[in-house]
Amino acid sequence: MAEFAATQAYPDEAMATQAYPEGQNGENGQAQAAEPEKKKRGKPKDELAPPRPKNAFQRVTGEARKKIKEERPEIATDLKAMGLALKEVWEKTPEEEKERMTKEYGEEMAIWKPKWAEYKLTPHYKEFFEVKQDWVDARMRKKLIKKLNKDAPKKPKSGYMLFAGEIRERVSKEVMEAGGGMGDIGKKISEEWGAVSEEKKAELANTSAGMKKKYDIDFAAYKETADWANFCDERAKLENKQIQKKLIRTRLDEAPKKPASSYAIFRSEVMPKVTEENKGLGCGELGKKIASMWAEVSAEKKEEYAAQSAKFKAQYEKDLVEFKRKNVYTSFLMERQVAKAKENKLLKLRTLPKRPMSAFAMFALEHKNDVEPGKGEGKGRDALKKLYEKAREEEKAAFIEKEKELKIKFMEDTQAFKEGEKFLEFKNVEKKIKMEFMNEATKVLTLRFLSDAPKEPPKSPFAVFVAQKRKASGEADGPPKSKKERAEEITKLKEEWAKADLQTKYDCEVQKKELAAKWKDDCKEFMADETWKEYLAECKKLKVPVQSILKEKKKILRKLKNGMAILPLPSKPESCPAKPPSAIRMFARDKLGEIKDKAEIPKLWTELDDESKQKYQSEAEEKGKAYRQQIQEFQSSEEGKLYIRQLKSTARRNKLAKAKDAFLTDLPKKPASALKNFISKNSKSLKIKNPQVKGADFKKLVMDKWENLDEDEKAKFTDAARAEMEAYDKKMEEFKASENWASFKKAIKVKAKRKMQKAKGMGFSLPAPKKPEGLPPKPLDAFKAYCKEMAGQGKALGDLAKMFKELPEESQQERRKQFQEQMDEYQQKTAEFDKTPDGRKYSAACASYAKRKRLVLAKIKFLKDEPKRPANAFSLFCVAKRPEIATEFPDLKGLGPVQGKLGEMWKDLSAEDRAEWTEKEFKAKEEYDEKLAEFQKTPEYKKYSAIVSRLTKKPGVKKAQKKTGVALPPAPSNLPKKPASGFFLYLSSQKAAGNSVNIAKGTESWRELGAEGQKKYQDEAAALLVQYEKDMKEFTKSVDGKKYLRLRAAADKKGRLMKAKTRFLGSDDAPKEPKRPPSAYFIFVQETRSTLPSGKISEVAKQLTELWNNQTAEQKQAFQEKAAALKEQYDKDMAEYKNSANFKKYDKAIKNINKKRGAKPKAAVKAAKAAKAGRGRGGGGGRGRGGKAAPPSKAAGSDSDSDVMGSDEDDSSSSDSDSD
Predict the structure, then answer these.
(1) C-alpha–C-alpha distance, residues 695 and 12, integer Å
(2) Is the dihedral of CA 112, 117, 121, 123 positive or negative?
(3) pTM value?
């Protein structure tokens, strides 16, 4: 892309410089196979740049250089001699020739300069400039190495270089005599090296290796000198300087240029003229000349230049802000911080102790010559690893021990270094670098993301007053004032504010609150936008703190002496009603415009007559009543309950903090345990000895040390801890007898409240039934009883479980047996208690509580998205007219009077006006019904319905088929709806007219209509019924209709089956079906489950399965015998159950429902007669024209459409027959 741009800008020069590479045909453009071009050495050259013209000296010396090389080849490589020869040629050149070439050079430069200026704007020039600058930077680094490492040991020569040094003088002489150059000398040496024998090469290689060994020793010693340290510091500074300049060139190349000053603008105007008039002057002289001219410029002219400069500066600042919003500037900041941090690390941490080698690294260094070098399996590092695995344990232990010693020394040296000045300087510089980056990054992110954030409102009423004055004078949108002008303005406004009346100040206070509330809402809206989310992500990426645009979020907490904080009270929700003002406050508000000092208000109130006072007091009482009603509604709302709960929690915590701060200042401090004292004493030494062990491994190491500690040593820690604990207990007894403790207990005492069982995260609570006094307590199982016995030892639950498992089998069996006896006794007592009045009452209360809790939980869980029931016509009218009431009747205050007025307005409405609101109610009801129907199809509602059906089902009670728990298929959208009768059409018309008519009144008015009045509605109902039957007939022929009727028939059949079961086997006197007995495995589980510690069901099940599998055949035989006895008893009970009268009736009913019923006898006779007589023209019993004989009529249970429809008569007849 860059080459294309350069070619377009400079076609002549670019085409001239584009030579075809070797191996490519220029005529047809077909590429030939060519070797990759060698990387050019030396200073880079830009092939696409317009070639700069040569001056007179360059032309003369360029032509002369070739001749001198041919005539005097001995000075071709001698730069000094060549320079003197060229100087001599230049001096002999005639002056006329020099002037001619100089004139041509000036003309060529006039053409070249615009081309060069244009080319510098191309992307290719920028790319080439970076390549060239990288070469310059590398050259500077090499010069630094030569300059500062003069005394450094020289690198040893290789075998080839030693050989070249021996023969270079001879080869150079031969090549020069033959007319060759430096390149020919290198080729000649390379050819002779190829002819050298292997013995000679090996000898030279050995010599080079010896020199290398000596160089390594000398260079290691040199690294300890100050010269090397100085070189490292200067190199780090130079590299950072070059990186910083490169970042500015590459990342800030699109940044706006700094604006010119007034003097710079003047200089750019006069520079061409001054240069033309003073051609012989240098840059310094020209600068002095222009400076003297600037001194003579008039003040008015200088102001013009200053205004022009200010305009440029304003534009520059605007462009700079736009540039800083780009991602490229953020990248620049990050890369600059990284470069500075790297320089700081290299300068300040150069002498930081190096981490020692590991045991394997030391082994590898010692045995690296024992393996084949290279990469891959069996070579290099892989071979050393295998060798290390096979090494003797003694050898490994020696390396490991050496590693520990080196690590201990490393940690000590590192600690000493961190306590020195270098590390302190490093941390200070690191802090400055981070602070610089953080400040600039914060500004940039503010420009990018928070420039459109809501501006903070005025903080005081005076600030509102100042803003109003500035807006009124038109200064708000004007140019910014100076600091002095602003100070003078504020002084004048303060004087005006002091003279303002109370009404003005009150209005400013109200406006301040309104602006603050609006600002808060705007901030919340802004923080919900995508811009704020992008800002948070960018802050996280750059690791800078997030600016809080809502200052109230960071409330300052007041700290107490004991370190605890006094929490701020939660902010009031918007729905919380404001407390109304008192009578004297309302009086003061009316007098705000008349008085200037608030101190006069109490005096004026006392001087007020009783009649005027009564006016304010009555108004205050009315507002107080309305407030009390509103606050009661707020407290019963979910938001109010949450606010009150938060308020109480904060008050309780603050109360506890203040009580501790006031009364527990002398509370004795609890001493540490023996283990803690051991850890604090030995952890430091253990860390030094085991530096590689950290985290959980170090904790395990300490615990192992404690467990394996000598009993005498452990006794020292234990006795000391016991003595401290005894002293602490004694001090606590004394403290608890003091007045401070009594005052503390009194301060934190709260009233006892009935415990409420609260569902987690559900936002409701249900009072659990209180346990009666006679209810027997449930015994603890074997493991829990063991835990209670061991409670004084302070063991964790996991440790107790291990200890319980380690108990002898006899002890465990004894505990389990004891628990089983207690459990049998508990079950017997519970059964006796359940027969008592208190027991039955408690059982019923528990069942009711469980049902209510499940229903509430199901409603909260599954009916979150249930559509809200719409308001009726009167409610819609009230919502629309309430604002009008407030405007037209301002004296009406409170919910009751306003509601009464709305009721009067509703009664005064005409039938047409009332019908409008009724229509709105019907539309809202239709929308609600549609939404409700859609919601009732959702899985959530079906789950809720299933739970309600299970919980509300009562066995033995006859219900309608829809309430038997059988889910009917959803009705398709095209299912015709059965029309209403004439009576209900009449009621609907009355309701639409706004007449609220119930069934009783509607029936009476329906009778009063008579036959003539009813005829209108009866005819309408008949027409609707005819249309319904027609639509139903079409529906039964459709695919959806057939599917729905088939599913409906299946649901009806399932309902009849459930109805039969409820009828014959659901009553209280009906026999109960015996419960299937458990298997041998489940009998084992029932007996063993209580002996295991509590845990996850899956883990307990796994343990039980393992225990069962580990049982011997004899042990399993006992459970199998129990299972067999239970099975035998179950079979006897089942036979008796099936032989009962109720079961036989139920079985008969099931058979009647399931069997395929044929045609009735009379129908069969008629069918036979019809078969003999023949139907149609077929002359036989066939169907249609000449068809085969008709098959027997299908039974009622078949799949024919007529049977699928079903009928209530069939159901009732089957039920009657079943009852026999």
Answers:
(1) 73
(2) positive
(3) 0.49
Pairing status of strand 565-566 against strand 757-758: unpaired
Q: Check if the beta carbon of residue 44 is closer than 8 Å to that of residue 136.
A: no
Residue 198 CA, distance from chain mean position: 70
How far is CA 331 from each of CA 130, 251, 325, 336, rounded to the nearest angstrom? 19, 8, 11, 8
Tens digit of each residue's pLDDT (9 = 90 or more) over 1178-1187: 444 444 433 4
**CATH number of 960-1050, picked from 1.10.30, 1.10.10, 3.90.1150, 1.20.1530:** 1.10.30
CATH of 1067-1152, one of 3.30.70.1230, 1.10.30.10, 3.30.70.920, 2.60.40.10: 1.10.30.10
Q: How far is CA 427 from CA 238, 419, 430, 542, 630, in A?
A: 22, 12, 5, 20, 61
- CA separation for the pair 149, 147 (Å, rounded): 6
The span from the CA of 738 to the CA of 744, in Å, is 10
Q: What token pair was written down for 1202?
A: 């007529």
DSSP state of 31: B
| Neighbouring C-beta atoms of residue 48, cutoff 10 Å | 20
663-748 fold: DNA Binding (I), subunit A (1.10.30)
Torsion of CA 15, 17, 23, 26, to 10 degrees: 20
H-helix or E-strand spanning residue 558: strand 558-559
Pairwise CA distance, residues 300 & 306, whole Å: 10
Tokens of 228: 């090397």
Is beta strand 558-559 parallel, antiparallel or unpaired with respect to 565-566?
antiparallel
Which pair of structure tokens corresponds to residue 375? Answer: 């990469």
For the chain, residues with pLDDT lower than 50 are 1-34, 553-557, 752-763, 955-964, 1158-1220
pLDDT on residue 1094:
67
- In contact, 96 and 125? CB cutoff 8 Å: no
Torsion sign across C-alpha atoms 845, 850, 853, 859: negative
Nearest CA-CA partner of 1056 in 948, 1200, 942, 1217? 1217
At position 438, the amino acid (one-letter code) is: M
Other Cβ atoms less than 10 A from the Cβ of 735: the count is: 14
1159 alpha-carbon distance from chain centroid = 71
Task: Give residue 994's region: left, alpha or beta (phi > 0; psi -120 to 50).
Answer: left
Burial of 1142 (0-12, 13-18, 19+ CB in 10 A): middle
Give the Cα-Cα-Cα angle 482, 484, 486 (nearest 5 degrees). Answer: 70
Contact 500, 507 (CB under 8 A): no
Q: How far apart are CA 6 and CA 552, in angstroms?
A: 59
Asked whether the domain spanning 960-1050 has the same topology as the one spanning 354-422, the reply is yes
The topology under which CATH files domain 354-422 is DNA Binding (I), subunit A (1.10.30)
SS (H, E, C) 1157-1182: CCCCHHHHHHHHHHHHHCCCCCCCCE
- Compute φ and ψ for 223, nearest 5 degrees: -65, -20
What pLDDT, in 10s, does the model give residues 622-670?
A: 888 888 888 888 888 888 888 888 888 888 888 888 888 888 888 888 8
Do residues 985 and 1020 touch, judged by C-beta distance below 8 A?
Answer: yes
- Tens of pLDDT along 1137-1176? 888 888 888 888 888 888 755 444 444 444 444 444 444 4
Q: Give the whole-angstrom CA distance, residue 964 versus residue 1059.
A: 7
Q: 3-state DSSP call for residue 946?
A: helix
SS3 559: strand
The 3-state DSSP class for residue 758 equals: strand
CA 48, CA 45: separation in Å to the nearest integer?
Answer: 9
- Give residue limits of the domains in the chain: 56-290, 354-422, 454-557, 663-748, 960-1050, 1067-1152
- Compute φ and ψ for 758, nearest 5 degrees: -110, 130
